[in-house]
Design brief:
With about 500 residues, this protein is mostly beta strands. Helix content is about 15%, strand content about 40%. The protein is globular. Keywords: Aspartyl protease, Glycoprotein, Hydrolase, Membrane, Protease, Signal, Transmembrane, Transmembrane helix.
Length: about 500
């Protein structure tokens, strides 16, 4: 089936207060313009994703430009462009909060796709083509950090290797390298490209399964997890960025949004603690209420254990309820709207036929968390429109269940149209309903002090050095100087 992909660009200005600086990377979302998909395919995609859950630089926040319109039937994919190496090369990588490591396809990769249905140009990282690339040796302490996120091992060349195996049987393997990541930087109201920092990332030499398919192929995956080899952990430990990131995803009217390495400041934000010592962003969901009436679901259903708990995951398309909570939730929704809609079951999923606005018919859902924080869901946050029949819209339950498991996963369906703050330093997650087309205030606190940024958002496509030979030359010269300083004073690489 031929699917055409459309890219929408929304440009937001960033104004930096007090002469501060912020680092910018473009984040894009691609989605097909024609054919939709079934809920079963979305569930299958999410099951694959759930298998993945496994120098002198300016203070500031990294600001990713978010593109695309939220619609789960379009099977959108969030990704950004990162620049690696000397001279810098640009790679398209999927944003993934369920894994930790940044990895990209490397030269001579076995099974890595060479073309993409996303209409993007794929590339391969070649360590021998970067003057600053260095392999991570088995004796390097950062090789031990890799064991937190993958199956690490040592090759005959004494290189620190990794293997990621995903839930659908696909996987990737390769070795870790250290090199420079380059950033677009805002100085006052001017965009520059003279910032970089050394990071460790994966160089993929083999891919299997769905990762080899060209329809949704990208250059790699950008892990936003909590472990030591995540880029956010590396940059914050160097004092380059704060140990917090935030996003605000638009759910309508052209889509787009904001993703920053920094803390979005909003008066209505409420916070709940992260569950300690978990590999993912686990929170304590305590109860669910419809129009203020708490459902009869035992709190033990949501307690965190080896196969239970509630995870906030911006990479999951739908939302999932623990099996014991799913039926009481769906039954309560159906009963509340029984006089106004016609229920029907489509391919095993509960749906409703409605000729009226769902906001006037369906109840408000409240998810109540530890610490007194409540996430309020509109009908659009737990239902998705599938099609129409005879002038009536068919709305289906966006919450699904994972048979035999007690996991509750809050994906994009729930997280859209909200500021979500992942405060790793404070070990908490916060949220607030928000119009994500508007600018946001961002506070960045690093080891070098605190700077306030205002109107953080997105930049135009012409900010990429790939499109500007002068910027490439300037970046290469600055990287050469920084390389000399780092190699003379630091043992990082």
């Amino acid at each position: 089936m031929l699917v055409f992909w459309l890219f929408l660009c929304v440009i937001y200005p960033v104004v930096v207060g007090d002469g501060g600086m912020t680092v910018v990377l473009p984040l894009e979302r691609a989605f097909p313009t024609s054919h939709g998909v079934e809920l079963s395919q979305l569930r299958a995609r999410d099951r694959v994703r759930h298998g993945r859950m496994l120098q002198q630089l300016p203070n500031g926040v990294v600001d990713f430009r978010v593109e695309g319109t939220y619609d789960p039937f379009l099977v959108g994919l969030y990704f950004t462009r990162v620049q690696l190496g000397s001279p810098p090369k640009e790679f398209y990588v999927q944003i993934d909060t369920g894994s930790d490591v940044l990895w990209v396809s490397c030269a001579n990769c076995n099974g890595c796709p060479t073309s993409s249905g996303l209409l993007i140009q794929l590339d391969f990282f070649d360590p021998s083509g970067s003057s600053t690339a260095r392999p991570i040796l088995c004796s390097d302490q950062r090789c031990a950090l890799g064991e937190q996120s993958s199956d690490s091992g040592c090759s005959t060349q004494n290189r620190c290797g990794y293997t990621f195996q995903y839930g659908d049987g696909s996987g990737t393997s390769g070795f870790y390298v250290a090199d420079f990541m380059h950033f677009d930087t805002i100085v006052g109201n001017s965009l520059t490209t003279n910032s970089s920092a050394p990071v460790v990332f994966g160089c993929s030499t083999s891919q299997t399964g769905d990762l080899t398919k060209p329809d949704r192929a990208i250059d790699g995956i950008f892990g936003f997890g909590q472990q030591g080899l995540s880029v956010i952990a590396q940059l914050s430990s160097q004092g380059v960025t704060p140990n917090v990131f935030s996003h605000c995803l638009k759910g309508s009217n052209g889509g787009g949004g904001i993703l920053v390495l920094g803390q979005i400041v909003e008066p209505n934000l409420v916070y709940t603690p992260l569950v300690p010592s978990q590999p993912h962003y686990n929170v304590n969901l305590q109860s669910i209420a419809l129009n203020g009436q708490t459902l009869a679901i035992s709190p033990q259903v949501f307690e965190t254990s080896s196969n239970r708990g509630t995870i906030v995951d911006s990479g999951t398309t739908l939302a999932y309820l623990a099996e014991e909570a799913y039926d009481p939730f769906v039954n309560a929704i159906s009963q509340a709207v029984s006089q106004n809609v016609r229920p029907l079951v489509a391919k095993g999923n509960q749906c409703y036929l409605s000729t009226s606005s769902i906001g006037d018919i369906f109840p408000t859902v409240s998810l109540n968390f530890a610490g007194g924080a409540t996430m309020v869901l509109r009908a659009e946050d737990y239902l998705i429109q599938k099609n129409s029949i005879g002038g009536a819209a068919v709305w289906c339950m966006g919450f699904q269940k994972i048979p035999g498991q007690g996991l509750t996963i809050l994906g994009d369906l729930v997280l859209k149209d909200k500021i979500i703050v992942y405060d790793l330093a404070g070990q908490r997650i916060g949220w607030a309903n928000y119009d994500c087309s508007q600018a946001v205030n961002v506070s960045a606190t690093t080891s070098r002090g605190k700077t306030e940024y205002v109107n953080a958002g997105q930049f135009g496509n012409n900010s990429s050095p790939r499109n500007d030979p002068y910027k490439l030359l300037l970046s290469a010269v600055l990287t050469f100087v920084l390389q000399a300083l780092v190699f003379g004073t630091s043992s990082f690489l």
